[in-house]
């Protein structure tokens, strides 16, 4: 789909420099030097693009009689010019010293000569038919005869043996050579004498015959290897005089060919561009007449078809093209074609490849004298197929599609100077236009020649054209003759239309000269045209010949080989009028760099969401950005990178080979932004049709694919939903696999009021089912909640999924519940309401049975109950649905579920029969509940079965821990509550919940059992209270107090034990001893003095207090030592941190640089022992509570233990990243606690006592 465009064309005329004709031409692209050899033997050297004369020298070979040039070659390695004559002389011209030296002579004469591509070997074919291979030092390496026996090589087809004359005298018309790009093979095509068939041979660089080409009659002495080394190209003359190019493989086999269509002329030279993309063919007249017939054709192969993309007739009369060659340019991948004629005129033509596409998506492809038109918005027909063909009188030079008005138009400037205009009936309906005026000469739809205007401009080559309006067009041309200013000429054309046909064309005013060469010409809204010069300057041309420099418009930072117009509304909002792509792959919008590493780009000017910029990148992503968002400064800055997904920072340090390897192994697994979509490697944008969500891409194989970019799709869906056009939004979402939950989540909670519109817009009930199914997440992902923002969730009332289902259910019921059984069932299934769904199926079954009894039928669109059940079984497991039916206590529905599934009904029939045999409905429900393990419901139904099953109910409650629930089910029935409370108490006692069991026993009136449970729980107050209520005597009370004292002591509740000893056992000595063990020094002294036992303070309290004080002093001393050591370590760590921070600030390290500490480094931890330990273990103290605990109805709890993981995490790692903060926290923890200070005070009070 790519056409050639002449980007630049420069000319120079040296016809007056030297008398005679040019017999040799070559060029050094690096130093921009051009060398000419005249028939007089004089060598001229010109420098620069303007080709200013540098020096000239005369060679001695031209003085000999009959000396004819055999070769003129510039040797880059030697920085010298080699001149070879047919008589055998070899001269070397030193360009720096400007000297001529004869380096050798071939005695037999030279028929042809050529250097290898690497410059290491010189191939000479002597006139005597020998192959000579010489080194750079002119040393003979190999010599072999050219005409070897053909029987040595077995060709694919039998070759006729060559007949050799007695003596050979080869000329350039009998032999030609060509080297392959790797310099490992060279080929020769030769004939021993005039009129003999030519034979193609392949040779190794050692002069060994490698292969012989298939026989092809009419071969000409013209050869060219494709730079990639795939094929060798040769020229064949057909019997009818037509010229054909043949392709040969390196083994000599033919590989197809194509016709040139140049009857009456012959091919003089073939030349390939360095990227193997463009083949230039130089054609000249066969005789001396018609010199103006010389010219150059440029051919391109794509999709297994050869296209003639450009034909450049040589404009100079009485001159014949002599030589051409491609030169690579860094700014243009295809390079520059330099042509020279025999009079000294030189023309350099820079070409580029780009698609010719309108904003509506109509693509124009040049194929010789035909234009292939395809409206890509309607059909994808890759060339050479097309929708419509336009047959022309000559090969096009440039084409321009008109985007103005209601219908497109096509302008074509041809190589003969004629301008053809074709108009379309409506919009881009080119097929209908061709069918409206059929042409008998064409079987396929054809537009015919169109309106033809004979040479509209003189003495210039039109390079590009642009439509300013439907009736105004601008032509940009380069003067045919050399000009000092190198300025282009602008010609404004006025067109007149009648319906869709152009009726007249005229030139408006005279030509306008622009100061420079135009690189691109683009329409500028309704203002005219924007012209970008080779220098990057931007000029604006308005109707009437107005030309002004656009100094106020943002120009590109670098010249752009392709430009696209930006819609007027974006320009009015402050955007640049042009989007440009440089040859290096940088995409600019005015001065803003949009992306780098781009391979193609396009603009979708109109459609949902506004105007969008699209481009493909070298990492094989298709990007799409809204121009309105690109206007935002932060967006512009964020998109200034490569435009693709961000790679790890280490990729930037790798060479291109390793990056390609990573990309090949990871594929498109890289996280791509939302505006990017992965595409096939090598895909290029051809068109982004107006108003469409698709982008047309051409793959490397030549086929076309229309892909929908998610950004464009979302824009269309958003626009449709804003207009409440649910039909369009639904179709777009289904076609492009967009999550259908978008239809519900858009503008939430607006859907709650527009659900009826969605139901009316979606035709099939199954489509509504798909929408409803998307509301629920799958595998924890997706769903309505995931599509809503937290603010949107708060805007609704309750669960959004439930609200959406309710809104849909209401809309479906209004539209007809019978027709939408499946969506209604899905509304319940999404919310997990299986029983409600089964109830709906049951209602449909009953309605069907009622209709059958009244001899009526359901509507044709109303699904039956069995169909609805089958729909439910698609998403719900049979066992789950069967259990839900049993949970409804509906055995018929359960059986219906089984029979409509893939399971064997016999497996469930016995079970259902057992349920049905139950005599009591309550017992039947009880049996079903027990089967479903719904024990609470089973308990309820067992109670409802009657008093005969009350004991069984208590037993079930005991087994399942439902006694409290059973108590709630039997309120106000004292005769039943007593056994239930006793059973509850026994259950709590067995579970070790003694306090709760005591409460239950007391409620049941069994106070003796309650006292024992209080005693087991350590609740001595309640135990003694119940003893008083049971009227215990003094001895019994004392015995109970002794038992309680032992239990409390064993539990460690020493203070409570001391209270019992003093109050109920009248044993103050024992009470003081217990308080001393509890380290309650004040209470111990109070009890001793109260009971008149002051000596106990000296015998029991004081020694224990002294020992405790001594231990406290030792602990305090150890803590002070620890604090001192930790403070020293803290200051050391803090100093290191401050020094490191100072160093980092001084070196201005980036975030990715080295840090003083690394969380991922495992360091050794300090031993936690003795004085060097970081951790501190506090001495545990046992203290009984002074008051009883409140009654608990939950039961006892086990003490929580700290996990080992948490214990390890609390250690301080020496050298770790958190050592400084951990040290500070640990030092703070070493301060005396409130308990220690309080105990120290009480010890001081004890020490000051009278003992």
From TrEMBL:
Sequence ranges assigned to domain ELP1 N-terminal second beta-propeller in this UniProt record: 365-624
Gene Ontology BP terms: tRNA wobble base 5-methoxycarbonylmethyl-2-thiouridinylation
Specify the superkingdom: Eukaryota
Task: Give the GO molecular function terms.
Answer: tRNA binding
Q: Where is the ELP1 first N-terminal beta-propeller domain?
A: 52-149, 175-327
**Location in or out of the cell:** Cytoplasm; Nucleus
Q: In which pathway does it act?
A: tRNA modification; 5-methoxycarbonylmethyl-2-thiouridine-tRNA biosynthesis
Q: Give me the ranges of the annotated region Disordered.
A: 634-653, 1177-1251
Key word Cytoplasm present: yes
Q: Biased-composition ranges for Polar residues?
A: 1178-1194, 1230-1240
Here the segments flagged for biased composition (Basic residues) are 1198-1211
Task: List, alphabetically, the Pfam families matched.
Answer: A-sol_ELP1, Beta-prop_ELP1_1st, Beta-prop_ELP1_2nd, TPR_ELP1
Q: What is its main location?
A: cytoplasm
Function, as annotated, reads: Component of the elongator complex which is required for multiple tRNA modifications, including mcm5U (5-methoxycarbonylmethyl uridine), mcm5s2U (5-methoxycarbonylmethyl-2-thiouridine), and ncm5U (5-carbamoylmethyl uridine). The elongator complex catalyzes formation of carboxymethyluridine in the wobble base at position 34 in tRNAs.
Q: Which family does it belong to?
A: Belongs to the ELP1/IKA1 family.
Cross-referenced PANTHER family, in alphabetical order?
ELONGATOR COMPLEX PROTEIN 1
The name this protein carries in UniProt is Elongator complex protein 1
Q: What is the protein's species of origin?
A: Symbiochloris irregularis
């Amino acid at each position: 789909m790519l056409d050639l465009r002449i980007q630049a064309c420069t000319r120079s005329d040296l016809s007056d420099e030297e008398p005679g004709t040019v017999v040799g031409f070559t060029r050094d692209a690096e130093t921009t030097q051009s060398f000419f050899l005249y028939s007089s033997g004089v060598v001229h050297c010109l420098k620069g693009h303007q080709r200013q004369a540098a020096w000239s020298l005369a060679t001695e070979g031209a003085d000999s009689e009959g000396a004819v040039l055999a070769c003129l070659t510039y040797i880059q390695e030697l920085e010298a010019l080699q001149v070879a004559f047919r008589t055998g002389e070899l001269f070397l011209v030193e360009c720096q010293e400007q000297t001529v030296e004869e380096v050798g002579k071939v005695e037999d004469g030279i028929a042809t000569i050529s250097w290898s591509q690497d410059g290491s070997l010189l191939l000479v074919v002597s006139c005597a038919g020998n192959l000579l291979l010489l080194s750079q030092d002119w040393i003979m390496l190999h010599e072999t005869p050219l005409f070897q026996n053909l029987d040595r090589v077995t060709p694919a087809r039998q070759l006729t043996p060559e007949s050799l004359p007695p003596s050979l005298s080869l000329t350039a018309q009998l032999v030609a050579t060509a080297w392959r790009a790797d310099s490992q093979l060279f080929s020769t095509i030769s004939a021993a004498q005039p009129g003999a068939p030519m034979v193609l041979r392949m040779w190794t660089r050692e002069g060994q015959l490698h292969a012989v080409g298939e026989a092809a009659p009419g071969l000409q002495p013209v050869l060219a290897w494709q730079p990639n080394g795939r094929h060798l190209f040769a020229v064949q003359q057909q019997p009818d005089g037509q010229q054909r190019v043949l392709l040969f493989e390196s083994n000599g086999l033919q590989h197809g060919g194509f016709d040139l269509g140049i009857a009456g002329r012959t091919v003089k030279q073939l030349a390939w561009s360095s990227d193997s993309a463009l083949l230039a063919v130089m054609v000249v007249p066969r005789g001396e007449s018609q010199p103006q017939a010389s010219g150059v054709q440029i051919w391109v192969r794509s999709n297994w078809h050869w296209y003639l993309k450009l034909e450049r007739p040589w404009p100079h009369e009485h001159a014949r093209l002599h030589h051409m060659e491609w030169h690579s340019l860094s700014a243009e991948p295809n390079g520059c074609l330099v042509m020279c004629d025999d009079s000294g005129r030189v023309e350099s033509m820079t070409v580029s490849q780009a698609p010719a596409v309108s904003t509506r998506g109509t693509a124009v492809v040049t194929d010789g004298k035909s234009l292939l038109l395809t409206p890509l918005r309607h059909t994808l027909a890759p060339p050479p197929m097309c929708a419509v063909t336009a047959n022309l009188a000559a090969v096009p030079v440039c084409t321009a599609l008109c985007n103005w008005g209601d219908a497109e138009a096509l302008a074509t400037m041809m190589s003969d100077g004629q301008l053809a205009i074709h108009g379309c009936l409506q919009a881009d309906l080119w097929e209908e236009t061709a069918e409206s005026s059929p042409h008998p000469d064409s079987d396929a739809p054809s537009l015919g020649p169109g309106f033809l205007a004979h040479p509209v401009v003189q003495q210039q080559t039109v390079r590009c054209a642009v439509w300013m309006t439907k009736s105004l067009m601008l032509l940009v041309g380069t003067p045919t003759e050399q000009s000092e200013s190198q300025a282009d000429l602008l010609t404004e054309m006025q067109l007149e239309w009648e319906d869709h046909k152009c009726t007249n064309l005229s030139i408006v005013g005279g030509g306008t000269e622009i100061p420079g060469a135009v690189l691109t010409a683009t329409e500028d809204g309704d203002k005219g045209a924007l012209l970008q010069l080779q220098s990057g300057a931007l000029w604006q041309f308005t109707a009437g010949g107005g030309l002004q420099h656009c100094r106020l418009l943002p120009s590109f930072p670098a010249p752009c080989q392709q430009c696209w117009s930006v819609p007027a509304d974006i320009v009015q909002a402050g955007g640049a009028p042009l989007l440009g792509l440089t040859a290096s792959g940088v995409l600019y919008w005015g001065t803003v760099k949009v992306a780098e590493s781009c391979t193609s780009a396009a603009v979708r000017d109109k459609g949902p969401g506004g105007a969008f910029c699209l481009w493909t990148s070298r990492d094989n992503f298709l990007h799409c950005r809204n121009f309105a968002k690109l206007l935002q400064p932060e967006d512009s800055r964020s998109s200034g990178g490569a435009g693709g997904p961000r790679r790890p920072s280490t990729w930037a340090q790798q060479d291109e080979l390793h990056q390609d390897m990573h990309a090949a192994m990871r594929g498109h697994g890289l996280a791509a932004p939302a505006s990017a979509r992965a595409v096939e490697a090598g895909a290029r944008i051809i068109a982004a049709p107006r108003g469409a969500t698709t982008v047309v891409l051409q793959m490397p194989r030549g086929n076309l694919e229309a892909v929908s970019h998610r950004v464009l799709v979302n824009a269309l869906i958003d626009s449709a939903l804003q207009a409440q056009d649910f039909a369009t939004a639904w179709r777009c979402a289904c076609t492009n696999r967009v999550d259908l939950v978008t239809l519900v989540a858009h503008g939430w909670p607006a859907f709650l009021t527009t659900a009826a519109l969605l139901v009316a817009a979606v035709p099939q009930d199954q489509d509504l089912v798909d929408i409803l199914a998307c509301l629920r997440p799958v595998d924890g992902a997706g769903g309505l909640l995931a599509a809503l923002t937290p603010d949107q969730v708060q805007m609704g009332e309750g669960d959004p999924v439930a609200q959406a289902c309710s809104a849909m259910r209401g809309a479906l019921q209004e539209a007809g519940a019978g027709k939408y059984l499946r969506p209604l069932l899905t509304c319940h299934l999404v919310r997990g309401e299986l029983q409600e769904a089964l109830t709906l199926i049951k209602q449909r079954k009953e309605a069907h049975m009622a209709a059958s009894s009244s001899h009526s039928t359901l509507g044709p669109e109303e699904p039956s109950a069995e169909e609805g059940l089958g729909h439910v079984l698609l998403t719900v497991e049979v066992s789950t649905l069967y259990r839900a039916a049993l949970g409804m206590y509906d055995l018929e529905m359960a059986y219906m579920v089984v029979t409509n599934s893939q399971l064997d009904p016999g497996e469930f029939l016995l079970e259902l029969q057992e349920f049905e045999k139950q005599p009591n409905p309550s017992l039947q429900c009880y049996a079903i509940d027990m089967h479903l393990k719904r024990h609470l419901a089973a308990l309820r139904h067992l109670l409802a079965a009657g008093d005969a099953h009350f004991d069984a109910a208590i037993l079930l409650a005991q087994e399942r821990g439902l006694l409290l629930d059973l108590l709630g089910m039997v309120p106000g029935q004292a005769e039943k509550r007593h056994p239930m409370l006793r059973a509850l108490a026994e259950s709590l006692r067995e579970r070790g919940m003694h306090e709760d069991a005591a409460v239950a026993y007391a409620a049941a009136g069994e106070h003796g059992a309650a006292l024992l449970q209080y005693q087991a729980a350590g609740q001595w107050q309640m135990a003694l209270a119940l003893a008083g209520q049971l009227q215990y005597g003094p001895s019994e009370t004392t015995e109970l107090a002794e038992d309680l004292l032992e239990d409390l002591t064993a539990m460690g509740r020493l203070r409570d034990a001391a209270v019992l000893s003093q109050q109920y056992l009248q044993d103050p000595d024992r009470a003081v001893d217990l308080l001393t063990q509890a380290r309650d020094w004040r209470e111990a002294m109070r009890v001793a003095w109260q009971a008149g036992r002051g000596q106990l303070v000296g015998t029991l309290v004081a020694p224990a207090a002294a020992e405790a004080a001594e231990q406290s002093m030792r602990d305090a001393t150890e803590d002070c030592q620890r604090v001192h050591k930790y403070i020293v370590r803290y200051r050391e760590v803090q100093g290191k941190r401050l020094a490191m921070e100072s160093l980092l600030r001084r070196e201005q390290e980036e975030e990715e640089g080295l840090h003083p500490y690394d969380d991922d480094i495992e360091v050794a931890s300090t031993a936690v022992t003795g004085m060097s330990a970081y951790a501190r273990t506090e001495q545990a103290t046992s203290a009984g509570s002074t008051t009883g605990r409140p009654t608990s109805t939950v039961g006892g709890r086990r003490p929580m233990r700290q996990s080992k993981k948490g214990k390890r995490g609390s250690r301080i790692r020496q050298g770790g990243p958190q050592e400084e903060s951990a040290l500070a926290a640990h030092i703070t923890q070493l301060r005396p606690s409130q308990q220690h200070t309080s105990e120290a005070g009480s010890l001081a009070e004890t020490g000051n006592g009278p003992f």
